[in-house]
Amino acid sequence: SQDVCFLPDGDYALFLRHYNEQVVRPGVIVNQKDEVIGQHQGLAFYTIGQRKGLGIFAPEPTYVIAKDIANNCLIVGNREDLGNDSFQVSQLNWLAVNEDQLPLKCDVEIRYHARSIRAELSHIAPGRVKVRLKKKARDITPGQAAVFYEGDEVLGSGIIDI
Question: What is the model's pLDDT at position 1?
Answer without folding.
Answer: 46
